[in-house]
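Worked example 4.2. Below are the chains of a multi-component assembly; read each line carefully before continuing.
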Amino acid sequence: AAGVIQSPRHLIKEKRETATLKCYPIPRHDTVYWYQQGPGQDPQFLISFYEKMQSDKGSIPDRFSAQQFSDYHSELNMSSLELGDSALYFCASSLRSGTEDQETQYFGPGTRLLVL
Amino acid sequence: AQSVTQLDSQVPVFEEAPVELRCNYSSSVSVYLFWYVQYPNQGLQLLLKYLSGSTLVKGINGFEAEFNKSQTSFHLRKPSVHISDTAEYFCAVSVRDSWGKLQFGAGTQVVVTP
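Applying the procedure described above to all two chains together yields the following structure tokens:
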């Protein structure tokens, strides 16, 4: 079965540079979530989208922005990168099907960002 | 707000022995409960979930978990582990009917040795 696709898988940037992470949800899934996992930490929710509208917002820095497009893929834009932004960034997707399973999030493999 | 506590940060276990990973949560509203596994340098894979119905849920790779509402717990068990079960295990909750974020516990590192 098709899974969530994230690109790139690895990214190295310098401080103060920008980065764009992409997420392609499972086909027909309409909701996308972004999480950040620092070294040795649990994933922290950043932001989510449903039908191209922001659905929920967590601890996302103002330097970060995200959007969901008409084909449901999503992009996380990160500017003025700091050393502390080095982390694994996960995208997850779900389908608001009207059943309880709509609450199940399926994760991609993550993008590992290293800021030097 | 919801919170998740995984009581053990690391659990060493011998191959073919049973393992139990403890998870407690607190929430003022109804929640859904999940266990995810993260193998080294990989993403998060859904092991199992409790949405409603039977409180004993079975997942992939021989894992099962029991939802206990009175104790607000969702402990994960496997009767006989393999070396390949070495991984980080995360318990997570989301608020029912909110399509909302997952709140994760700090994770439990399971190390299986021969």
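Take a moment to check your reading of the output against the notes. The two ends of chain B are 41 Å apart (CA to CA). Chain B has a mean pLDDT of 92.
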